[in-house]
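A.,

Following up on our hallway conversation. Structure tokens first:
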């Protein structure tokens, strides 16, 4: 979901009143009144930084590192959401049929070849099987095999992100929906409880969950609840101020 380590701590402001620095001030003043002392003080200041300067340097480095991590996550997020799949024939028909089937916007129940054939009654069974594995080759579905010839197909998050904007008539893409959720989350911590965020979106789970899953890639794993439940990718969040900054940046119109 993210490149940031689990449980990343908030970045503390630089220390400004270190005891060593308070002791250093009168010492520098005493040296300054000695002939040539000003030059010595200047050299010391240049080559021996104060504790406050060291603290600020570390703080600036941490801010830069964290900003780069957040920027990397945003870039990866946009790359994953960018449409890049081109298909033709039965594969397209199967993808459209799967997208329009009732569902919860997550991996859903496994579908075997017989159930896929019911979605496309006019197509040949072999053509539908080939189409299923073509979708798998694009990462749009996951196919799990049992012992023997039996297999089951489940949708992936990539399926929703690549196809919903082309198939569903919502007027926005999964990426746009994710930006809308980010705006809500950044504005009110009540929406850290996923059912509240879902209700505020006004969407059914088939539309909400793919957008919410896409959004979770921007949030460090340690701030995402990990319980197993059937309704959402995560039941709740525990955001820190730096997470809200990332969400606000992501929510800005492109």
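Then the amino acids I'd put at each of the 254 positions:
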């Amino acid at each position: 979901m993210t490149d940031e380590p689990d449980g990343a701590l908030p970045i503390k402001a630089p220390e400004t009143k270190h005891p060593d620095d308070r002791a250093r001030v009168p010492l520098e003043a005493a040296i300054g009144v000695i002939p040539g002392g000003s030059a010595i003080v200047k050299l010391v200041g240049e080559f021996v930084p104060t504790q406050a300067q060291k603290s600020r340097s570390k703080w600036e480095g941490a801010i830069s590192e964290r900003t780069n991590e957040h920027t990397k996550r945003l870039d990866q997020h946009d790359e994953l959401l960018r449409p890049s799949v081109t298909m033709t024939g039965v594969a397209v028909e199967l993808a459209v049929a799967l997208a329009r089937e009732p569902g919860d916007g997550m991996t859903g129940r496994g579908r075997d070849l017989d159930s896929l054939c019911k979605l496309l009654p006019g197509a040949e069974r072999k053509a539908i099987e080939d189409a299923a594995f073509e979708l798998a080759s694009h990462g749009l579905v996951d196919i799990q095999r049992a012992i023997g010839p039996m297999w089951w197909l489940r949708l992936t998050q990539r399926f929703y992100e690549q196809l919903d904007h082309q198939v569903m008539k919502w007027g926005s893409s999964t990426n746009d929906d994710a930006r809308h959720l980010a705006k809500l989350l950044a504005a009110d911590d009540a929406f850290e409880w996923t059912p509240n965020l879902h209700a505020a979106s006004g969407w059914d789970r088939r539309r909400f969950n793919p957008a919410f899953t896409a959004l979770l890639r921007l949030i460090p794993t340690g701030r995402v609840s990990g319980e197993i439940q059937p309704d959402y990718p995560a039941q709740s969040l525990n955001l820190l101020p730096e997470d809200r900054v990332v969400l606000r940046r992501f929510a800005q119109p492109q």
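Residues 1-7 have pLDDT under 50 and may be disordered. Curious whether your intuition agrees with the design.

B.
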